[in-house]
Design a protein that fits this description.
Shape: globular
Strand content: 15-25%
Structural class: alpha/beta
Bound molecules: iron/sulfur cluster
Largest sheet: 9 strands, mixed
Strand order of the largest sheet: 1-2-3-4-5-6-7-8-9
Oligomer: single chain
CATH superfamily of the largest domain: Aldolase class I
Number of helices: 13
Helix content: 25-40%
Number of domains: 2
Order of helices and strands: HHHHHHEEHEHEHHEHEHEHEEEEE
CATH topology of the largest domain: TIM Barrel
Number of strands: 12
Radius of gyration: 21 Å
CATH class of the largest domain: Alpha Beta
CATH architecture of the largest domain: Alpha-Beta Barrel
Distance between the termini: 48 Å
């Protein structure tokens, strides 16, 4: 299937990278170096609204702006409602602290036996190896520490995390997260994966990364070659809108899938970005073409300053209702609320059970018709 190439330059007069050689554009180090971090750079790329201009300055102390040229090139320069722009350009909504907002909405710091490890579930841990990301997503649940260089995971912290995992035989699954672990060099990641692979009770690792979306150039041949040596390595990524499924993202996913990595997507339900069944259906169909299984849809959590992104739980159930039965089961993720205060992921499904009396169950199918099933 021929995929349309992502436009490298946004339409309009602000194509500031037009003369950049492909060798730069395709180099992830160059993309990292050239990130947009200031308002004067941003206004060369998009026509800023007054709200965005103010927010880019006023939110900087709390949560920096960082946008790779690649991700910025996907923005509509004239539409402040562009889904890529909403996820990466600050708005004044971030300065509003809602009553329900929490600094650490999932209580990840509370369940931290050593710095850099959250151990909440019996057989798996979250392992933070960096606090950097190519793009600082405005809806980030870890904005309390991501983008803050003073909180970056020090080498000793990573070593302490590895020691903790080695000392806990119940841990069979390690979710390597951050920030974005792919912000580390291949050598550094290789070292971490090698150490983990040498721990007999660790069966699988999962890399949680948004680089496929924000910096697909990061998925180089050398990188996937390195991953091959540590399989099984699962990769979970975070596409939120079909506009992010570019030719570059397809190529990054192909390399990972060809290297044997099972790929999953964790979408966050965001008002104005993807709270629409049609958008999610299109996204999930594109993900399956990329060999990425839609894995979770998260209800937007209670992180501080992101209430403008939240929508109702019912909006998520409506999306699942629109998917289930109407398209391949592979395209139907789990819709979950990651409960505040460390309650963990709670599935929230539409109701398909109409009633249940003794051995008789009455179900409703995706077309709304009722069917009765009798248990033995
Ligand atoms: S990539 Fe993930 S950790 Fe980094 S800013 Fe985005 S949501 Fe937060």
């Amino acid at each position: 299937m021929t995929q349309q190439l992502a436009t490298r330059f946004p339409p309009g007069p602000r194509s500031i990278w037009r003369d950049e050689p492909d060798a730069h554009w395709n180099d992830w180090h160059w993309q990292q170096r050239e990130r947009i971090t200031r308002v004067d750079q941003l206004e060369k790329v998009i026509r800023l609204t007054d709200d965005e201009r103010r927010a880019a300055v006023e939110t900087d102390a709390d949560f920096h702006m960082g946008i790779t040229p690649y991700y910025a090139s996907l923005m509509d320069p004239d539409d402040p409602h562009c889904p890529v722009r909403l996820q990466s350009v600050p708005t004044m909504g971030e300065t509003i602290v809602a009553a329900a907002d929490l600094d650490d909405p999932l209580a990840e710091e509370r369940d931290m036996p050593v710095r850099g490890i959250t151990h909440r579930y019996p057989d798996r841990v979250l392992f933070y190896v960096t606090h950097n990301c190519p793009v600082y997503c405005r809806h980030c649940t870890r904005k309390r520490k991501v983008a803050d260089p003073s909180s970056a995971a020090a080498r000793q912290q990573v070593e302490d995390g590895l020691d903790y995992i080695a000392a806990h035989p119940e841990v069979r699954d390690v979710v390597i997260s951050g920030g974005d672990p792919l912000s580390l060099s291949d050598e550094r990641l290789d070292h971490i994966l090698e150490r983990l692979r040498a721990i007999p009770h660790v069966e699988i690792f999962r890399l949680g990364t948004r680089n496929l979306v924000t910096l697909p150039q990061r998925i180089t041949d050398d990188f996937v070659h390195m991953l091959r040596r540590h399989q099984p390595v699962y990769v979970n990524t975070h596409f939120n809108h079909p506009k992010e499924c570019t030719a570059e993202a397809f190529e990054a996913a192909r390399r990972l899938a060809d290297a044997g990595c099972p790929l999953g997507n964790q979408m966050v339900l965001l008002k104005g970005v993807n709270d629409d069944p049609k958008v999610v259906t299109e996204l999930n169909h594109k993900l399956l073409l990329m060999r990425i299984r839609p894995y979770y849809i998260y209800q937007c959590d209670l992180a501080k300053g992101i209430s403008h992104f939240r929508t109702t739980v019912e909006a998520g159930r409506k999306i699942i209702r629109a998917l289930r039965g109407h398209t391949s089961g592979l395209a139907v993720p789990h819709f979950v609320v990651d409960a505040p205060e460390g309650g963990g992921k709670i599935p929230v499904n539409p109701d398909y059970v109409v009633r249940h009396e003794g051995k008789k169950w009455v179900f409703r199918n995706f077309r709304g018709k009722e069917y009765t099933y009798f248990e033995p």
